[in-house]
Specification:
The protein is built from two helices and two strands, in the order E-E-H-H. The chain is α+β, with helices and mostly antiparallel strands. It has a domain of 46 residues. A two-stranded antiparallel ribbon has the order 1-2. A hairpin with a 2-residue loop joins strand 1 and strand 2.
Length: 73
């Protein structure tokens, strides 16, 4: 994933947790993320996996529909 971190995309030892923030305009970048936070006016307005966020039918779903169309979600 494109985040500029020197270890981005490298495998990590099992059992070691980490948080890797990613800012993305292309939603395909975060499609496999464990949790997606959607910000509006500096506030978190949605939280969930890709599928959960699409199912909520709110802002993220509208953005995804615009980028992927309804067939690929």
């Amino acid at each position: 994933m494109a985040c500029g971190h020197p270890r981005a995309g490298q495998s990590r030892p099992a059992g070691i947790g980490f948080i890797e923030p990613i800012l993305a305009h292309r939603l395909s970048t975060v499609r496999k993320a464990d949790v997606i936070f959607v910000l509006r006016d500096g506030r978190i307005v949605e939280r969930g996996s890709f599928g959960e966020s699409v199912a909520q039918g709110n802002l993220f779903a509208e953005l995804a529909k615009g980028q992927f169309g309804s067939a690929k979600m």
